[in-house]
Structures are given as structure tokens and as C-alpha cells.
Specification:
heterodimer; A: mainly beta; 7-stranded mixed beta sheet; 4-stranded antiparallel beta sheet; 0% helix; B: mainly beta; 6-stranded mixed beta sheet; 5-stranded antiparallel beta sheet; 11 strands; globular
């Protein structure tokens, strides 16, 4: 079955530690995205990549880093510089870049808790 | 003021009821409008996509856009317990996915 796999589903981290969230897709999509979801707030875009070896900052990129070395993989690192990392993180992908050419497909999310 | 406002709910209805979910927005340039459904601890999935104004129907779901009032709605007819989820509106002025602005979501509970 085609889809997006995020791992781990739940992750606990001590303050000051970096953590990497995995996102893999087998949909052959060019574009991939990372969002953060917090209670009382809409999904906010952290980073996106429209093609391999290229990525762009979203609205809240500070304290995060990404890489896009393979088409199917877009890992997100939450660094110790991120002030409020506890959140639900969602990875998504799309065939093309534009809303009228397809849709965003989301993974099941990773819940990060900083202790 | 947020660009997109959505009542968080929860909205509780009995099975079979007609449900109306709404979002208001402040950016008059928005022209792409979407509704997503998100089950607990899952990722959102696209329900409806509308470009510009008007209505769109898909089965029990109808999406309505009123650009003059900066107001969009999602109607669910004959609601089912399986419709219990959080419904997110999303919209954009530009065609790129990276420009989407999401509402906070409305939690819907449909009781048998």
C-alpha cells in the first residue's frame, strides 16, 4: 500500500538533546513537508522540499533542520535550540507543488514530548 | 487576529443530524479552500477542495464558499458516529501547497 510512514509514533526527549523524526513515502511524490500541530493552533509549516537536494524554510523553521538526500525520505531534526519542542509533528507529501494538481497526503504523525 | 478562525468545539450531535462546520477568514485574497478530516492521533485527510466561490457536493458532504462574507462551510448530512473527528479548514491565496493556512479545527462528536 502506498503511503507515508512516520517513526517513531511517540518520543520522549530530555532538554538539550537533539532528536530526529523519520518520514518515508512510497508515493513517488516530488514534494514533502513538515508541519507542527499544537492545541489551539492550526498546522504550521516548518520546512518543505519540492525536489531532492533542495529544501526551504517554512513559517517556523527556527530550531529545526531537515535533509532531502533521497526522493522518498525527508527526516526532521528537532535541535536543542527549539524552545518549545513538545508537539505533534506531521509529515506530508504531494505529487506536484500546486493545489489544483493534487492533494496533500499526511502521515500518522509523531508525538514528541520533552521532559 | 488570526487569518483563519474556527470554533474548536466540541460540537455534539445525534446520529442522523445535519452538521454545519464553519471558518471565517480575514485575507480577501484567499481563493483556494479545503476541508480536512483528522481522526484522533492520525494525520489529516482531504475531504473537499474548492477553488474560488460556490458550492461543491460529494456524497453526504457539501462545501460552500462565500467570498463576499469571507466565510466557508462544510455541511454533513445524515451524520454517522464514524464522522466523529476534528475538521480542519485550510485556505490559500496562492496555488502552492506551502502557502496553505490552516484553521485550528472543530471537534465533532456524533452520538449513536
Amino acid at each position: 500500500d502506498g503511503g507515508i510512514t512516520q517513526s517513531p509514533k511517540y518520543l520522549f526527549r530530555k532538554e538539550g538533546q537533539n532528536v530526529t523524526l523519520s518520514c518515508e513515502q512510497n508515493l513517488n511524490h516530488d514534494a514533502m513537508y513538515w508541519y507542527r500541530q499544537d492545541p489551539g493552533q492550526g498546522l504550521r509549516l516548518i520546512y518543505y522540499s519540492q525536489i531532492v537536494n533542495d529544501f526551504q524554510k517554512g513559517d517556523i523553521a527556527e530550531g529545526y533542520s531537515v535533509s532531502r538526500e533521497k526522493k522518498e525520505s525527508f527526516p526532521l531534526t528537532v535541535t536543542s535550540a527549539q524552545k518549545n519542542p513538545t508537539a505533534f509533528y506531521l509529515c506530508a507529501s504531494s505529487m506536484g507543488q500546486f493545489l489544483n494538481t493534487g492533494e496533500l497526503f499526511f502521515g500518522e504523525g509523531s508525538r514528541l514530548t520533552v521532559l | 487576529q488570526k487569518e483563519v478562525e474556527q470554533d474548536p468545539g466540541p460540537l455534539s450531535v445525534p446520529e442522523g443530524a445535519i452538521v454545519s462546520l464553519n471558518c471565517t477568514y480575514s485575507n480577501s485574497a484567499f481563493q483556494y479552500f479545503m476541508w480536512y478530516r483528522q481522526y484522533s492521533r492520525k494525520g489529516p485527510e482531504l475531504l473537499m477542495y474548492t477553488y474560488s466561490s460556490g458550492n461543491k457536493e460529494d456524497g453526504r458532504f457539501t462545501a460552500q464558499v462565500d467570498k463576499s462574507s469571507k466565510y466557508i462551510s462544510l455541511f454533513i448530512r445524515d451524520s454517522q458516529p464514524s464522522d466523529s473527528a476534528t475538521y480542519l479548514c485550510a485556505m490559500s491565496a496562492l496555488p502552492g501547497f506551502q502557502k496553505l493556512v490552516f484553521g485550528t479545527g472543530t471537534r465533532l462528536l456524533v452520538s449513536p
